[in-house]
Fold this sequence. Notes:
By secondary structure, this protein is α+β, with helices and mostly antiparallel strands. It has helices at 7-12, 17-28, 150-155; strands at 38-44, 47-53, 62-67, 70-75, 98-103, 108-116, 119-126, 135-136, 148-149. 6% of the residues are buried.
Amino acid sequence: xxxxxxxxxxxxxxxxxxxxxxxxxxxxxxxxxxxxxxxxxxxxxxxxxxxxxxxxxxxxxxxxxxxxxxxxxxxxxxxxxxxxxxxxxxxxxxxxxxxxxxxxxxxxxxxxxxxxxxxxxxxxxxxxxxxxxxxxxxxxxxxxxxxxxxxxxxxx
Length: 156
């Protein structure tokens, strides 16, 4: 197992302790199984989609929660008794319980979730608060210039 030293990051960043801790934790985690398989796609600059292949699971079998920037998707299916008329020769469709966790960046929220043809789609969107958007600061001199927002400055 490889180890990664993130201590140089702690010397050069301010206020990103949570991010550095998250990277260190991710580096320590053992690889998890590949069930259920998933895709993460960027649809636009601030829009994402997570797709999970959850064949055999219905809406009532799935639980989606977001807590403290962690999106948790869990599936638990109640086993169906074998058909009375016959027996399974082979059972290859996975019906086991699962739990997937995705760490979300600040200001990313779940916009929608859909289940269609065995694919669970979760749509995410980054909403940057107005207070965190870039803004231009004017240098105050004799003219007494004041703060001008980025959007107002670009419009001029």
